[in-house]
Specification:
This protein is an alpha+beta fold and about 170 residues long. It is built from 2 helices and 9 strands. The N and C termini lie far apart (about 50 Å). The model is unreliable at about 15-35 and about 155-170 (pLDDT under 50).
Length: about 170
Amino acid sequence: MTNIHLSGRRLAAIGGVAMLVLAAVIAVMAMSANAASTTLGVKTVKVGSTSEPIAVNSKGVAVYTLSGESTKHLECTTRKCFTAWPPLTVHGKATMASGVKGTLGTFKRDGFTQVTLNGHPLYTFEGDGNKAGVANGNGIVAFGGTWHVVVEGSAKAAQAPAGGGAGGGW
């Protein structure tokens, strides 16, 4: 039988690596939670002080775009951004229900396939708690632009609430 002796420093290094691997697995699982959300639909949700029909994923969760971002010019590229704004991902083909206008597409990035609308990557917002009927992220300025829910009938973003939205801080 062989005895294995690990110094405290080596044991700490192994523990640190294990924590990084665990964090990566959790991040991938969070992004994969959106993977089943292949249908883009419409639901009336309170955005700021008014209720309006907006684009939602298959679970009824609000879908957002980041101003100035496209598949050719990405702004949300860090783990911090992906944690706050999980990309809307798919395995296979994305579909669109009636009520949302535009061209639905996908593109591959960072090991996953993200859904786009008119060439703009789509995201959900961690601050919505993955709950249907909630749109707390509209108007937040973070990660190189302003986040907007997609309104029914077009790929246009909803107007930010008066006062500049919920602010940055991300």
